[in-house]
Amino acid sequence: MTVSAPEFIHETVLLKETVASVLNVTVAALETGTIKKTGTFVDATFGRGGHSRLLLTYLDKDSRLLVFDKDPQAIQTAQALAASDARVIVIHDSFAKLQDNLQRLGIEQVDGIMADLGVSSPQLDDGSRGFSFMRDGAVDMRMDTTRGESVAQWLKRVDETVLADVLYNYGEERHSRRIARAIKQMDHYDSTLALAETIKQAHPNWQKGKHPATQSFQAMRIFINNELGDIDSFLDQSLMALKVGGRLAVISFHSLEDRIIKQFLQKHSKGQYPEDANLPMPPKRPKLLSKPERVAPSDSEIKTNPRARSALLRSATRL
Ligand SMILES: C[S@@+](CC[C@H](N)C(=O)[O-])C[C@H]1O[C@@H](n2cnc3c(N)ncnc32)[C@H](O)[C@@H]1O
């Protein structure tokens, strides 16, 4: 499903696979067109609503779909959808505030939660958002432009060593120290292209087909949006938020995100021993999730949408 709004397009990744997963049916069953479910569902990352729009076609009129996004432009698109579909409830907030928002709305638990992590194509394609090292714009990179500090503001005040740690920890950038030094020597941070060029010049090891600023830009974006911290709290809250039998389906785009999701699903699908138990044979914790499933995009999806290349869908059922 391709959705444009207003001038940028987001090609949804693992569309049918994610919707089938959150509804607990197979893609083949989805394609019969006979599925109609009732319930309350969450799209934690609305974006341009590709997953939400398809899910809505399988929900009856009494169902509800709560859609979250941090991004004001995504929220504008979600509000337009809600204006024509009363089942849609729009929440301009981080998915890390899942429980707060459910409580505020008087919703105890939900039947399914899906999340498609990271940035959308419109965020990357609009140079003025500052996410891209290919298009010039202010060095911003905030998903929620209505609050918080931009990367430019942060770069002005951050210590070189802290910057290097961020580049290393969130970008797995091996040359973080020399890149951090070069960035801190810049006079101003008002151009993504200038920042990308500085990183390129400082980077000693250019790889074919990959801009040398790729990992540093990813690191600054993850840091400024607290992306990994948000995923941690969201996953923890999803256990409380899901009804027994409810489904959790999460798409990641890089190894740092995927590691968190994989470890979370593994931990809760195995009975764990409490770490502080002092007993010779401590009682097992109940399993909270079923054995996790993993789906990667098909070759044909990757061919038509190269962004799908690194996507991975992991899912499980609340027990
Ligand atoms: C890959 S896009 C989702 C695309 C969507 N599935 C579609 O088909 O249009 C990710 C979206 O998640 C949003 N996002 C990222 N982190 C978030 C968070 N912590 N809370 C809420 N939204 C977040 C981004 O602003 C972006 O719009």
Can you give keywords for this protein?
two-stranded antiparallel ribbon, 9 strands, transferase, 15% strand, binds S-adenosylmethionine, EC 2.1.1.199, globular, methyltransferase, alpha/beta, cytoplasm, 7-stranded mixed β-sheet, single chain, 319 residues
Care to describe what's here?
By secondary structure, this protein is an alpha/beta fold. The chain has 14 helices and nine strands. The strands form two sheets. The protein has a seven-stranded mixed sheet with strand order 5-4-3-6-7-9-8, with helices on both faces. A two-stranded antiparallel ribbon has the order 1-2. Strand 4 (64-69), helix 4 (72-84) and strand 5 form a beta-alpha-beta unit. Helix 1 crosses helix 3. It is globular, with a radius of gyration of 21 Å. The two termini are 32 Å apart. The model has no long low-confidence stretch (mean pLDDT 94). Bound molecules: S-adenosylmethionine. S-adenosylmethionine (SAM) is lined by residues 10, 12, 45, 47-51, 68-71, 74, 94-96, 116, 118, 120, 143, 230.
